[in-house]
């Protein structure tokens, strides 16, 4: 296992180079890293450094990883899956930097899918809804989300588990999804389907 900071291009480039030299090829890559951050500010009080950190990790970090991965991906058949969020589809009040970064991941995914589609490389995005992980619980502790409220806002009445996202991500990476590219695939218990933040 190699630890890298995805916002550091040098570290990411040497990580991908080393990976390819050990395994001889790169069939797929999942760019999952993200931070939730956010201190509940409204737009006029956004802290510049906090904004820049969020964009650097959540959006530029994905670009840095893709830029390093794409030249090595198997042609045809290589595939990338980036993790965006249902917050990449609609605004997230009091956490505009997060939503902006996740909208950006979708733009990056679609643009790249168009650039590489004819080579037989697929690029897709997974958009998790409320998933019970550290990032969610940290946001909840800051008062940014509430598990009961978001659970009620899903069509299934519950939060998701990381494994439920991972299974879709693995499917999209695999040849079973051979005609899926440029997609934003929600894994959200229906959170985005009928509106967000619905009461009970
Ligand atoms: N949990 C949710 O409700 C939810 C909803 C929508 C989208 N997402 C997205 O899913 C992805 C995974 O989040 P999670 O819920 O598993 O959260 P998590 O906090 O459990 O995992 C995030 C991981 O990113 C790593 N990380 C943070 N900064 C990094 C950096 N600069 N370089 C390399 N690694 C770094 C952390 O060490 C951690 O392992 C994120 O992109 C997140 O935005 C999560």
UniProtKB/TrEMBL annotation:
Cross-referenced InterPro entries: NAD(P)-bd_dom_sf, SDR_fam
Q: What CDD domains does the record tag this protein with? A: SDR_c (cd05233)
Any idea which GO molecular function terms this record carries? oxidoreductase activity
Instruction: Keywords in alphabetical order, please.
Output: NADP, Oxidoreductase
Per the record, a Pfam family? adh_short_C2
Q: Which domain of life is it from?
A: Eukaryota
| Family under the similarity heading | Belongs to the short-chain dehydrogenases/reductases (SDR) family.
Q: Which PANTHER family match?
A: DEHYDROGENASES, SHORT CHAIN, ESTRADIOL 17-BETA-DEHYDROGENASE 8-RELATED
Report what the protein is called. Answer: Oxidoreductase
């Amino acid at each position: 296992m190699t630890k890298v900071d995805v916002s550091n291009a040098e570290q990411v480039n040497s990580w991908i180079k080393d990976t390819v030299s050990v395994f001889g090829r790169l069939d797929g890559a999942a760019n999952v890293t993200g931070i939730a951050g956010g201190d509940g500010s409204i737009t006029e009080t956004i802290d510049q450094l906090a904004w820049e950190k969020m964009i650097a990790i959540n959006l530029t970090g994905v670009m840095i990883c893709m830029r390093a991965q794409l030249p090595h991906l198997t042609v045809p058949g290589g595939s990338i899956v980036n993790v965006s969020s249902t917050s990449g589809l609609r605004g997230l009040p009091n956490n505009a930097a997060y939503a902006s970064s996740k909208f950006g991941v979708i733009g990056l995914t679609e643009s790249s899918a168009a650039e590489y589609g004819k080579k037989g490389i697929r690029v897709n995005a997974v958009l998790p809804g409320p998933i019970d992980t550290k990032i969610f619980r940290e946001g909840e502790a800051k008062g940014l989300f509430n598990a009961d409220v978001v659970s009620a806002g899903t069509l299934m009445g519950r939060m998701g588990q990381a494994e439920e996202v991972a299974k879709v991500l693995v499917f999209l990476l695999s040849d079973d999804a051979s005609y899926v590219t440029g997609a934003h695939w929600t894994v959200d218990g229906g959170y985005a389907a009928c509106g967000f933040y619905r009461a009970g």
